[in-house]
Design goal:
By secondary structure, the protein is α+β, with helices and mostly antiparallel strands. It has a domain at about 20-125 and about 330-395. It has twelve helices and 18 strands. It has helices at about 5-40, 85-90, 125-135, 150-155, 160-185, 185-205, 210-245, 250-265, 275-300, 365, 465-475, 500-570; strands at about 45-50, 55-65, 70-85, 95-105, 315, 320, 335-345, 350-360, 370-380, 380-390, 395-410, 410-415, 420-425, 430-440, 440-450, 455-460, 480-490, 495-500. The chain is flat and about 100 Å long.
Length: about 575
C-alpha cells in the first residue's frame, strides 16, 4: 500500500469534510443575513441554519427581518423553513424541490432590540410625502377671515400651476413614447417577408413534381398565416401602447384639482371639491399602505428575471456555456410546491395557511406562472388571498386579489392636524382589493368598508364657529363609511384616486356653513385655473390627435398591403394552379 499516494488524498477529503461540517453552514447563514439586510435596509437575524449533503436538505429556523421605518418592529419573520432537494437535478448544478414547508410566517411583530442599521437612511416615499403635504395645505384655521370676493382679485400665474407643468412634461414624454412605439413597429420586415414568400411561390408553381409542389405550398401557406398573424399581433400591441401613453393624460385632472385646492387655500377658502376633501381625509393613511406594498413589490422584483434573453446560457470569463435542449429540462432553481402557515395581526392573531406553486428563478424554462393561494378564518373574520406571477414572456405580469372581512377596528384616525381629525373607534372593517401589473404599469382598485363604528371629529383648528360646528355635526350620527381607491401609473410613480362618502358629508357642511357667496368664489377660482391650463391642454390634445392619426394611417396602409398579398397567396396555393393575380407591395 502506497501511503505516500493515499495520505495526501485522504487529508484533502478530511479537510473538505471538515469545511462542510464546521464552516459551510455558518458561511451560508452569514451570506443570507447580509443579503437580507441589503434588501430590507434593516437588521436581519437567523437563529439556526442546517444543511445536509447525504440527503440534500436545508432547514432555517427563527428568521426575522427588521422594518427600516420602525426600528422596534419586524417587517417579516418565520419560525421554520425546510426542504429537501431532488438528487438527479443536482448533478446538473440545479436545485429542484418537490415540496417545501414554511411555518409561522408573520408580519409587523415587535422586536426586543433595535433593527436599525448604522449609516442606512430610509428614503421617504414621494407618494406619502406629497399626500401629507396636500393634506397639511388643506388648512381651515383662517376661514373666519375668508372673503367671498377674494377670487375676483386673485391672479393665477400659469407658471406656478402644477397642471401646466405636467401638461408640458406629458407633451414631451408623449412625443418620446410615440417615436419609440412607431420605431418598434417595423412594417418593412413583414413586407420583405411577404415578398420572399411570394418569390418562393413563383418558383414552386412551375415545379412539375406534384407531390413536392404540394409540400412547398403547404409550408408557404403556413408561413404566410404566421407572418400575417404576427403583424396583427404587433399592430394590436402598438395601438394598445399608444392608448396607454395617452391614458397618462388623466393625471392632468388630478393636478388640476390640486391647483384648485392650492388657489382656494391662498384665498383663505376651503375647497368644497369632494375629491380634495377625500384626499385630505384618507390620503395619508392610504399612501402609507400603498408605499409599503410598493416596497414589497420593488424588493421582490429585484430577484425576478427581467426578460427571456440569456435564460439558456451563462457567460463565463473564458467562454460560453451552452445548455442544449433536453426532453426534460429543469430551471436552475425550482420549488414545485411550498406549504405555508402563519398568523396575521399581533393582537388576537388570525391563523392562515396556503400554498405557493411554481416558485422558480427561470420561469421561461419552467413555462408556467407562479401562483399563491392563502386562506384563513376565525370567528367572523375571513381572509382570502390569491395571486399569480407570469414572467415567461417579454414583460412580467401579475394579478392579485385580496378579501379580508370582519376585522375589528379599535382605533383609527383620518384627516389632517392642520384642519381637523376624525377619530374612528369600534365596529368592524372589510377590505377588498385587486391589482394587476404589466411591466412597470399598475392598474388596481381597493375598497374599505367600516360598519358599526363611532365617528368623532376634532375641529379645534377651525376658528369660524359655524363651520366648526357644521363639521363636527356632520360626523355625529355616522356609523358606517366607504373609502375607495383606484391606483394607476407605474411602480416607481403610482397615482391614487381616492373617494369616500365621508367627503360628501364634509362638503355639504362647508356649503351650508360658508354660504353661496363662497361657492361662487370657488367657481370663479376654478375658471381662472381652467383658463390658465386651457392652451396647454389644447396643445397636448392636438399633438396626441395628430400622432394618433399619423400612426393609424401608417398601420392601415401596411395592413392593407400585407393582407392583400397574404390573401392572394393563400387563394392561389393550390397545386396545379398556373397563375397568381398581380399585386404589389
Amino acid at each position: 500500500m502506497r501511503w505516500s499516494y493515499i495520505a495526501p488524498r485522504l487529508t484533502l477529503l478530511l479537510l473538505l469534510w471538515a469545511f462542510f461540517f464546521f464552516a459551510f453552514d455558518p458561511l451560508l447563514k452569514w451570506g443570507m443575513i447580509k443579503g437580507l439586510e441589503k434588501g430590507a435596509k434593516a437588521k436581519a437575524e437567523i437563529a439556526s441554519l442546517k444543511t445536509s449533503f447525504l440527503h440534500p436538505s436545508l432547514k432555517i429556523s427563527g428568521l426575522a427581518v427588521g422594518d427600516s421605518k420602525d426600528e422596534y418592529r419586524n417587517l417579516v419573520e418565520f419560525s421554520e423553513l425546510s426542504f429537501a432537494a431532488e438528487g438527479a437535478p443536482l448533478l446538473e448544478k440545479k436545485l429542484v424541490v418537490d415540496s417545501a414547508s414554511l411555518k409561522g410566517l408573520r408580519f409587523g411583530t415587535v422586536r426586543k432590540t433595535s433593527g436599525k442599521l448604522a449609516f442606512v437612511k430610509e428614503v421617504p416615499s414621494p407618494l406619502v410625502e406629497d399626500l401629507k403635504k396636500e393634506s397639511k395645505d388643506f388648512a381651515l384655521e383662517r376661514t373666519s377671515d375668508a372673503k367671498a370676493g377674494a377670487a375676483a382679485d386673485y391672479k393665477v400665474d400659469p407658471a406656478e400651476l402644477g397642471s401646466v407643468k405636467l401638461a408640458k412634461q406629458l407633451e414631451e414624454s408623449y412625443q418620446k413614447d410615440y417615436e419609440a412605439i412607431s420605431a418598434r413597429l417595423d412594417t418593412k420586415k413583414y413586407e420583405a417577408g411577404m415578398e420572399a414568400l411570394k418569390a418562393r411561390y413563383e418558383k414552386a408553381k412551375d415545379d412539375k413534381n406534384f407531390a413536392k409542389q404540394a409540400k412547398d405550398y403547404a409550408e408557404i401557406g403556413k408561413e404566410v398565416k404566421k407572418l400575417a398573424s404576427d403583424f396583427r399581433k404587433d399592430k394590436e400591441e402598438t395601438e394598445a401602447a399608444l392608448a396607454r401613453a395617452k391614458d397618462s393624460f388623466k393625471a392632468l385632472d388630478e393636478a388640476r384639482r390640486k391647483d384648485m385646492a392650492a388657489v382656494m387655500a391662498k384665498m383663505k377658502l376651503p375647497s368644497m371639491d369632494t375629491q380634495s376633501i377625500a384626499r385630505m381625509l384618507a390620503g395619508p393613511v392610504i399612501a402609507e399602505k400603498t408605499a409599503q406594498a410598493m416596497k414589497w413589490m420593488s424588493l421582490a422584483r429585484k430577484y425576478m428575471p427581467a426578460s427571456t434573453k440569456g435564460v439558456l446560457k451563462n457567460e463565463g470569463a473564458r467562454g460560453r456555456e451552452v445548455h442544449f435542449p433536453k426532453e426534460k429540462s429543469y430551471p436552475a432553481v425550482l420549488v414545485r410546491k411550498l406549504s405555508l402557515t402563519g398568523e396575521l395581526g399581533t393582537e388576537d392573531p388570525l391563523e392562515y395557511s396556503g400554498t405557493v406553486e411554481g416558485l422558480t428563478t427561470q420561469p421561461q424554462v419552467y413555462g408556467r406562472p407562479t401562483t399563491i393561494a392563502v386562506k384563513g378564518a376565525k370567528g367572523m373574520r375571513r381572509l382570502d388571498f390569491r395571486a399569480s406571477l407570469d414572467a415567461a414572456g417579454e414583460e412580467i405580469k401579475t394579478a392579485s386579489e385580496l378579501s379580508f372581512s370582519g376585522m375589528p377596528v379599535k382605533q383609527m384616525q383620518l384627516g389632517s392636524a392642520s384642519s381637523f381629525m376624525v377619530d374612528i373607534t369600534g365596529g368592524s372593517a372589510a377590505f377588498d382589493a385587486t391589482l394587476r401589473t404589466a411591466g412597470e404599469r399598475l392598474d388596481g382598485k381597493a375598497a374599505a368598508r367600516l360598519a358599526g363604528a363611532s365617528f368623532k371629529a376634532s375641529a379645534d383648528k377651525i376658528k369660524a364657529a359655524p363651520l366648526r360646528s357644521a363639521v363636527e355635526s356632520s360626523f355625529a350620527g355616522l356609523s358606517a363609511a366607504l373609502i375607495e381607491t383606484d391606483i394607476s401609473g407605474t411602480i416607481k410613480s403610482p397615482r391614487l384616486s381616492i373617494k369616500t362618502d365621508l367627503a360628501n358629508a364634509v362638503s355639504k357642511a362647508f356649503s351650508g356653513a360658508l354660504g353661496a357667496e363662497v361657492k361662487k368664489a370657488q367657481e370663479a377660482a376654478q375658471r381662472k385655473v381652467d383658463e390658465a391650463l386651457k392652451p396647454y391642454r389644447a396643445k397636448l390634445d392636438d399633438a396626441a390627435a395628430v400622432k394618433q392619426a399619423e400612426l393609424g394611417a401608417k398601420l392601415k396602409e401596411a395592413e392593407s398591403r400585407i393582407s392583400g398579398v397574404s390573401d392572394g397567396l393563400l387563394k392561389n396555393l393550390v397545386p396545379g394552379k398556373a397563375k397568381l393575380p398581380k399585386f404589389k407591395l
